[in-house]
Amino acid sequence: MARRRDPATGPVRVLVVGDVHGEFELLAEWSAAYRRSHGPLDAILAVGDVEPNRDEVDAAGVYGPAKYRKLGDFPLVLDGLLDLGAPLYFIGGNHEPWPALDEAGPGWWSDGAYFLGRSGVTDVVGLRVAYLSGIYSARITDTAKARRESIRDRTYYTGDEVARVERAAGRTGQVDILLTHDWPSDITEPIRDRSVGRPELRRLCQRIRPRLHLCGHMHHRHRALVGSTEVVCLGHIKSGADAFVVVERDPDGNLALV
Length: 258
What we know:
The protein is built from seven helices and 13 strands. A seven-stranded mixed β-sheet has the order 4-5-3-2-1-12-13, with no helix packed on it. Strands 6-7-8-9-11-10 form a six-stranded mixed β-sheet. By secondary structure, it is an alpha/beta fold. It has one domain (12-257): Metallo-dependent phosphatases (Purple Acid Phosphatase, chain A, domain 2, 4-Layer Sandwich), CATH 3.60.21. Helix 6 packs parallel to helix 7 (199-208). Helices cover 23% and strands 23% of the residues. The protein has helices at 24-38, 56-60, 74-78, 98-104, 138-141, 159-172, 199-208, and strands at 12-17, 43-46, 88-90, 107-110, 113-115, 119-124, 127-132, 177-180, 212-215, 222-226, 229-233, 244-249, 255-257. It is globular, with a radius of gyration of 17 Å. This is Metallophosphoesterase.
């Protein structure tokens, strides 16, 4: 997808951001701050709830209360008025312009912004990235051949999509990064007597054994281990540094978190 940096020039650097919710000016500011201090980025990964609304029609397709439905800053990116500093690769969360995303399918959503799709494994600047968009719903996820007919239904992943990630990972070998919107289960104590995270995402992580599992959704930063996989949950972009992590891959293929 994106150009690869020559390994001789140094490590590949990828900025990973939590829930953007249309705040692309903030994303551009944080990207610029990193690049001033540490040098160029090769890509930006986003873990869902990006809200890359190109116009009011896209914004109207975002599920949620009307007071939270906004156009956001993405038109500035679309018009070339806002530089993110590197190509953006994103999955979808539960607040996205899903009718438009589903119609377009995986691919370049705009110049410099790439929608990875609903589920699968792909290459991003030399990293093997497994991904699953959306969140859980018993009515959709646990129903065979479920049909997503309403805007709300589009926010959920299906059981087939979870299985597709595992099958694709089995064909491609070592997965560097697993991107999901929701958390895997059993990595933190219940909050307000409710369990946090999804068992099927924990099983997926255990089966494909990515080096890193990156997620968002809860607007809270948290780190944990699932087996040998380091899980990093990222905050809302307005939480500042808690919304970001940088992944570096050296010429030998080793990954490190910055």
